[in-house]
């Protein structure tokens, strides 16, 4: 059976994250420039080959000072490590529409295996005849695993930035 390539529709996709600030609220950010593709056998996503890259300097949280700090060597070090990368090595169907996605996430030059959940929304034809596939992907990672260790102690106890980062990803892919 032949393979099918799917490319990301960036205008209908979002790569976002959340992290605790001061131990009690979340700050949300997203990457505005990214690319991804999937190689499948036909329209079956089981065992799909997945590749994602994102431009670190496209990160935004809606606050210029915070964004500048996140791009500095204290966090992402965008000058030295301009790209994040994910290469999926397993895409396994758990239930109808639910997949377990594992792969290597590379941040700050450090690659670590991560486990993500992927909800498959199915296939849909858009008004222009393009076949699209939709996914919602989620995971929780510890930022310290990738050398993102900067923090500041609070005088009331606790720290300024939480360790756990929730990934919240909405993706549309276009069949080629």
Architecture overview:
This protein is mostly beta strands. It has one domain (3-175): Lipocalin (Beta Barrel), CATH 2.40.128.110. Helix content is 5%, strand content 62%. It has one helix and eleven strands; from the N terminus they run ββββββαβββββ. An eight-stranded antiparallel beta barrel has the order 1-4-5-7-8-9-10-11. β8 and β9 form a beta hairpin. The two termini are 16 Å apart.
Key words describing this protein structure:
176 residues, Lipocalin, mainly beta, single chain, 5% helix, elongated
Task: Set out the fold topology.
Layout: E1 3-8, E2 14-21, E3 25-31, E4 34-41, E5 44-55, E6 59-60, H1 64-71, E7 83-95, E8 98-107, E9 110-125, E10 131-142, E11 161-175
Antiparallel strand pairs: 1-4, 1-11, 2-3, 2-11, 3-6, 4-5, 5-7, 7-8, 8-9, 9-10, 10-11
Number of helical segments with 4 or more residues: 1
Oligomeric state: single chain
Note the beta-strand portion.
over 45%
The CATH homologous superfamily corresponds to Lipid/polyisoprenoid-binding, YceI-like
At a glance:
The chain is mainly β and 176 residues long. The protein is built from one helix and eleven strands; from the N terminus they run E-E-E-E-E-E-H-E-E-E-E-E. The chain has an eight-stranded antiparallel β-barrel with strand order 1-4-5-7-8-9-10-11.
